[in-house]
Design goal:
about 220 residues, TIM Barrel, eight-stranded parallel β-sheet, binds 5-O-phosphono-D-xylulose
Amino acid sequence: MKNLMVAPSILSTDFAHLGKTLETINRSEADWLHVDVMDGMFVPNISFGTPVLQAIHKHNKKPVELHLMIAQPERYLEVFSKYGEQITVHAEACLHLHSVVQQIKNLGCKAGVALNPHTSLGSLEYVIKDLDTVCLMAVNPGFGGQDFIPDTLEKIKELKQLIQRKDAKAFIEVDGGVNRNNVKEILNSGADAVIAGSSIFNSNDPLRAIQELRNPLIR
Ligand SMILES: O=C(CO)[C@@H](O)[C@H](O)COP(=O)(O)O
């Protein structure tokens, strides 16, 4: 069985101890850091903006995926490109998704597109070949600590088929409600990576939690 790539979602951490959390992630087997920027418009929650991104940039040693849960993300691509190796935008937030993907790539970042649970894969058909990652939301975006939506497993399989049919190279990432109990099924459905917040940071041993998600066979 292959390893899953794991990216801890910083949203679920204690922001009073952000530096300490980043030190832990730096020492961990995490493949990259997942950073959710929320605007209170596209999603009903506000997370943080550039001052926090600057602080993360200073202390973090892992690659960063900036997950922009914001309306019209094209307004902020240039400024955010300074703080992440990959920028992931929501298909639902982009009127001109193809153009936004090209803008991300022209800024020198990898490009990801996220889909909300209700959004069908059809919106990716003509952009998938340009993507480094597709992020399937397994919860409605905005908050950590929600339950995994089981239909996501079917969606992962269909996405895998789309990627193969189009001869595309995009990674499949699954975000939300991922834990030690469902990670094997997510892997078996065809995911390449998972984003996890509460199952890592609510654990007594985040380093071990990351290891367990990366390799469901070690426990
Ligand atoms: O983007 C989101 C939620 O909107 C996720 O990245 C969560 O931050 C993942 O947290 P858990 O569901 O693992 O607690």
